[in-house]
Design goal:
By secondary structure, the chain is mainly alpha-helical. Helix content is 69%, strand content 0%. It is built from 17 helices and no strands. The longest helix has 44 residues, at 277-320. The model is unreliable at 1-8 and 323-354 (pLDDT under 50). Belongs to the amino acid/polyamine transporter 2 family. It is a multi-pass membrane protein. This is DEKNAAC104537.
Length: 466
């Protein structure tokens, strides 16, 4: 029986492209002009293209891996369960690092921007920064205690408005400066422009994590699940068009923002603009966007943290009492020990999606602990670009390169009869697509794994030890 015929209702190509672009583009875009400062225009452009191509391949691999599961069932976790069940904790670590790190960066960004939007007389910038970060808890904390976040769908609308406004602000400021021969830019905010000479290997790797994070799309499986007629050809076309739009936007924002200030540019370009209505409106929109997005990042981070906690607890119990293994198995042992197709036939649409228990008491203390740690870190660190660099070098690299690489290496050109049965059962006509038999793509996936792990180590080292 062909599961993936896609004849029912679903998202159109256009809406899927919009959702993909919206998932990729975020506040990290504001640090990309700084990457041109460290990399030079030439190398920065090459790295933007390289990150786009490798991330695009990762997204295509995610689309291919969805063909091994019933339509709508594919997630990082469910694909992990049919490929490398032992990596399920790695998946949760990747999601935790990605979501929790981005959430913390939102608090740091709020502390950076709000003193510029509304300054308090007699207060130092540092005091105002701490006040606004702690004050943001009035919005974020109640929302983080909600079990369901459906009402925050409006955050995506605000995000689109804010990003569109900020992009136009960057374009207009360069045009205005150019017309006025840059006389409107303070002398301390003007620097030379480097077309070919990067600042060094370590600064380049420090900003590489930011570039990787800028392209990260953690929602690809959801977009594929909702797609009408989800053929591999349509998935590839969505990835191609989405990445083309994103590259054009990232390149112009990076180039125009860098040309406006040269090497005098700081990490976050929105901080470079003067104190006027248009700049402050952009900052206020951005703060509103990130505060409403904070619980959207916090929610999956909490789920992954709970999964990691339960897995570690299970390992410790197993190590302390090996004789009671059958009475205290790991949370996912029941799934690991069964044939995936058998599990699916028993569980229907819920293969691999069994929720790890999160009782109310643990929900409360885990939420409180994570919020306290997040606010302590955000108050202690005042470098927005440093946080994005670390998040990109860890969670972004794992989601964009390492996990898709592992999936592709396991699923593409495989001799595993169980996996081939899955592809035949759920892939429909796509099961005969040449990409599933491509030895070159399989080797490329191996390269993604190696590149991801090596760049992660180098990027983290470059960011922490300047």
């Amino acid at each position: 029986m062909v599961e993936n015929d896609g004849t029912g209702p679903g998202a159109t190509m256009s809406s899927s492209i919009i959702n993909t672009v919206n998932s990729v583009i975020g506040s990290g875009m504001l640090v990309l002009p700084y990457a041109f400062r460290t990399d030079s225009i030439l190398l920065g452009t090459i790295l933007l293209l390289f990150a786009a191509i490798t991330n695009a391949v990762g997204l295509v691999i995610q689309g291919m891996s969805s063909k091994f599961l019933k339509q709508g069932n594919a997630t990082f976790f469910t694909v992990c369960m049919i490929t490398y069940p032992q990596l399920s904790v790695l998946f949760d670590i990747a999601i935790f690092l990605q979501c929790y790190g981005v959430a913390i960066s939102y608090l740091v960004l709020t502390g950076d921007l709000m003193p510029l939007v509304y300054s308090i007389d007699g207060w130092s910038p540092e005091k105002m920064r701490v006040l606004y970060i702690l004050g943001s808890a009035a919005i974020t904390v109640p929302l983080c205690f909600l079990h369901k976040l459906d009402s925050l769908k409006y955050a995506s609308v605000i995000a689109l408005v804010a990003i569109a406004y900020l992009v136009l602000l960057i374009y207009f400021n360069l045009f205005y400066s150019w017309v006025n021969h840059f006389e409107n830019v303070p002398i301390d905010k003007l620097g030379p422009v480097s077309f070919f000479q990067p600042q060094g290997i370590r600064p380049v790797f420090k900003t590489l994590g930011v570039i990787v994070l800028a392209y990260t799309c953690p929602n690809e499986y959801g977009i594929v699940s909702e797609l009408q007629t989800p053929t591999l050809t349509r998935i590839i076309r969505i990835v191609y068009v989405s990445m083309s739009i994103t590259v054009a936007l990232f390149f112009t924002v990076s180039l125009f923002g860098y040309l406006n200030f040269g090497n005098a540019i700081k990490g976050n370009i929105i901080l470079m603009y003067g104190d006027n209505f248009y700049s402050n409106l952009g900052r206020l929109l951005l703060v509103l966007m990130v505060l409403l997005s904070f619980p959207l990042m916090f929610h999956p981070a909490r789920v992954s943290c709970n999964n990691i906690y339960c897995a570690i607890k299970g390992w410790l119990l197993e190590g302390d009492s090996k004789e009671n293994d059958e009475q205290s198995p790991l949370l996912d042992a029941a799934v690991h020990d069964q044939d995936p197709i058998t599990v699916e036939s028993q569980e229907g649409d819920n293969i691999g999606e069994q929720d790890v228990p999160l009782p109310d008491s643990r929900f409360i203390w885990l939420t409180v602990l994570m919020l306290i740690v997040a606010y302590c870190i955000s108050v202690s660190l005042n470098s927005f670009e440093l946080i994005l660099s670390l998040v990109g070098a860890t969670g972004g690299v794992l989601i964009s390169y390492v996990l898709p690489g592992f999936y592709g290496y396991k699923l593409i050109d495989t001799d595993d009869p169980t996996l081939n049965e899955r592809l035949e059962a759920h892939g429909g006509e796509d099961s005969s697509h040449w990409l599933f038999r491509s030895r070159g793509l399989k080797l490329f996936c191996l390269g993604l794994i190696v590149w991801g792990l090596v760049s992660m180590v180098i990027c983290v080292y470059s960011s922490l030890f300047e």
